[in-house]
Design a protein that fits this description.
GO molecular function: nucleotidyltransferase activity
CATH superfamily of the largest domain: Hexapeptide repeat proteins
Shape: elongated
Mean pLDDT: 90
CATH class of the largest domain: Mainly Beta
Low-confidence stretches: none
InterPro entries: GMPPB_C, Mannose-1P_guanyltransferase, NTP_transferase_dom, Nucleotide-diphossugar_trans
Radius of gyration: 25 Å
Pfam family, one: NTP_transferase
Family: Belongs to the transferase hexapeptide repeat family.
Distance between the termini: 45 Å
CATH architecture of the largest domain: 3 Solenoid
Length: 308
């Protein structure tokens, strides 16, 4: 590997957390194993949706791992954040070699071969959870690092809003200077955790928050109300428009007295409203619980629709 790294971070792309990588690395180096997994405690009812694991409470060693088991194993789950030494590649190679050997040694009839052709995994296909974590559990090679911070899995578009609110609340503790503040009538009224990019232009009569993120070069007009939303680059929100529990895509425009809103049900298909890039919502139009693809113009109110 280039630069011969001592350790490798592996992060699932569908998780949201505080990513305590420095603390994980320190623990990982202390363990001296092949890998360290970030884990968190969840309710017993929700644990089966994830990879459940059992760890030694003293040493942190991973003793047992089961991916989405049918019966309860543990209320500790895999967060999808890992640190490995380069030895992980030897483990991957071993799995691939063993699979090739099994395929070579086992004689099957033509009928069996035809039936299993679509079921057998390719010899070079390795599943981290079933092929690496489960077999290595209890062999003093894998360890755990438990976090008490926030963690969410992003499985629906609506979870983006949930995760945005978690990061904004994290800023309040770690980087409060990034959050917007009201300034006695000279700036917009700010409620709760709000981020406003320095290049955005916000009218002082607007009211923003809680849980709002406004990106670069956005323009927020007089009397605008924003709650629980993400406003991306170059968006224009005209006078007295309202955006609630929605994501407004790049270069979109919301007309005067228009309303773009969702239900704040982050796990539902239509739980929030999403406007793609360059969507125009004309004046006095209501868009509720909709997904609108890019480059569309809405001149009439819509509810619970996908606008193609």
């Amino acid at each position: 590997m280039e630069d011969d790294p001592a350790n490798i971070f592996l992060l699932n792309c569908d998780v949201c957390c505080s990513f305590p990588l420095a603390d994980m690395l320190e623990a990982h180096c202390g363990y001296g194993g092949m890998g360290t997994i970030l884990v968190i405690k969840v309710s017993a009812e929700s644990a089966s949706q994830f990879g459940e694991l059992v760890a030694d409470p003293v040493t942190g060693e991973l003793l047992h791992y089961a991916e989405k088991p049918e019966t309860f194993v543990s209320d500790r789950i895999n967060c999808g954040v890992y640190i490995f030494t380069p030895d992980i590649f030897l483990g991957i190679q071993d799995v691939s070699t063993q699979r090739k050997d099994r395929a070579t040694m086992r004689r099957v009839s033509s009928f069996e071969a035809l039936q299993s052709a679509t079921k057998a995994l390719p010899t070079d296909f390795v599943r981290l959870d079933q092929d690496i974590l489960s077999p290595l559990a209890g062999k003093r090679k894998l360890y755990t690092y438990e976090t008490s911070d926030f963690w969410e899995q992003i499985k629906t578009p609506g979870m983006s809003l949930r995760c945005s609110s978690l990061y904004l609340s994290q800023y309040r503790l770690t980087s409060p200077e990034l959050l917007a503040k009201s300034d006695g009538g000279r700036t917009a009224t700010i409620v709760g955790d709000v981020y406003i990019h320095p290049s955005a232009k916000v009218h002082p009569t607007a009211k923003i928050g809680p849980n709002v993120s406004i990106s670069a070069n956005a323009r927020v007009g007089a009397g605008v109300r924003l709650i629980g939303c993400i406003i991306l680059d170059d968006v224009e929100l005209k006078e007295n428009s309202i955006v609630m529990h929605s994501i407004v895509g790049w270069k979109s425009s919301i007309g005067r007295w228009s309303r773009v809103q969702g239900e704040a049900n982050y796990t539902s298909k239509f739980g929030i409203t999403i406007l793609g890039e360059d969507v125009t919502v004309e004046d006095e139009v209501v868009v509720a619980n909709c997904i609108v693809l890019p480059h569309k113009m809405l001149n009439m109110s819509v509810q619970e629709e996908i606008i193609l």
